[in-house]
Amino acid sequence: MADLTYRAVVCEALGAPESLRLQPLARQSLSPGTVRVSVKAAGINFPDLLTIEGLYQHRPQLPFVPGVEAAGIVLEMATNVPGLSLGQRVIVRMRTGGYAEEAVVPASQAVAMPEGFTFAEAATFLVAHGTAYHGLVSRGGLAAGQTLLVLGAAGGVGLAAVQVAKAIGARVFAAASSAGKLEAALRNGAHEAIDYSQEPVERAVKRLTAGAGVEVVLDPVGIEQASVLRCLAHGGKLLIAGFAGGNIPAYAANRILLKGCSVIGVRAGEAGRQDPALRRCELDAVLALAAQGLARPLVSARFPLPEWAAALRLLKSRQAIGRVALEMG
Q1: Euclidean distance between CA atoms 192 and 186, whole angstroms
Q2: Which of 3, 173, 190, 313 has its CA 20 to 30 A from that of 163?
Q3: Angle, in degrees to the nearest 10, between helices 126-133 and 276-291
Q4: In which band, very low, low, confident or very high, does the pLDDT at 318 lie, cut at 50, 70 and 90?
């Protein structure tokens, strides 16, 4: 191939987004079972921020290219690659490598893009919707007719959870910090909106449920433990999916005991690595929702690759509605 290098955002030392550098990298050779993808867009996720700061569970060896999801076109294929074709539009899942103009990955980590998706939508689909589906269905057992409170409901995982829960047939209470964010959640299928900048979330939940509380809470934010446990009905489930708010709450055992509730961790990526059959089942399910028009990311901001720091800062500020994407041009 004529070009021997491609551009990538490289983390050489842990720190702020501005400490990363856009550099030319030498092309990797293909090993059996891998594909080379010309990346057109990459998703920006909170784990990317934590990883470059050295605060995430997965700590890749320096230097590395951040980015756990991307979308693009299959450019080259090695031997032993069934199910893909040259020129195919694909979503790529990885632990690092997304913030780049190309990526070499095992073919098993590339799946066909949903019909009608843009590259930016495809690049921001699987992490958020996969987390939402894993949390609500595989971990939470959410069923039609149940009540669900989604905290941070206008974020990437939050909006994905609203869409997945609506498809299941649950009654969805969306909580967010502004009217604009709540409008987005309502447009995506939420039944009730709670502005927790105006009213304590536990008070709003009690008001809207006649004091009963909700059966399931999905928390990707890390809300204060006393507040979130008061939102639950007796015997309810609290699904902990992240700490985008910057706080890691501790949950009082006596409150959990008195509520008879379950506190459940949601980490879709690790669950998939531990149980590949579960990952395949969940992947098929979210792709089916996309094919039916029931699941689609809202990409509210797009940045060119050289503006990665601005994209990460926007996500960190929690001002973005839905997803943020890098586009390679």
Answers
A1: 7
A2: 313
A3: 110
A4: confident
Query: 208: domain CATH number?
Result: 3.90.180.10
DSSP 138: I
User: What CA–CA distances, in Å, run from 123 to 39, 244, 255, 282, 325?
Assistant: 9, 20, 40, 17, 7
Query: How many whole angstroms separate alpha carbon 67 and alpha carbon 10?
Result: 10
Q: What is the DSSP letter of 322?
A: B
- Containing structural domain, residue 182: 127-269
**Tokens standing for residue 180:** 């604009």
Say whether both 83 and 207 belong to one domain. no
Assigned domain for 291 exists: no
β-strands 171-176, 147-151: how paired?
A: parallel
The mean pLDDT value for 79-103 works out to 94
Q: Are 219 and 239 in contact (CB under 8 A)?
A: yes
Residue 186 makes CB contacts below 8 A (sequence gap 6+) with 174, 193
On the 0-12 / 13-18 / 19+ scale of CB atoms within 10 A, 200 is middle
pLDDT tens figures, 255-271: 899 999 999 999 998 99
Give the span between the Cα atoms of 213 and 232, in whole angstroms. 5
The answer for residues whose C-beta is within 8 angstroms of residue 283's C-beta and 6 or more apart is 111, 126, 130
Lowest mean pLDDT among 141-145, 219-223, 292-296, 325-329: 219-223
